[in-house]
Amino acid sequence: METTLIRKACRFRLEPSAAQRGQMEWFAGARRWVWNWALAAWRTFYREHGVSIPAGELSARLTALKGEPATAWLAEMENACRALVRLPTGSVAC
User: What is this structure's pTM?
Assistant: First the structure.
């Protein structure tokens, strides 16, 4: 007996209000900043130690940034934005 695989796709259109659009743009920018920061931290650690930075250390560093004046805005991020930024190397920033 043969099995047939059927794939189905759905399309959705978002029509956010001006306030929602601003929040979405802020969310995307914050997520990109965290990604770039985590990637830079991973690269530096790898150059110095020859291994990937442990996920717990990366997470601790990100948590510490929230207490610094220049990056205090990180504390305002929703958990969904902070959660699990996966680097291409397999490390995770939380």
Answer: 0.69
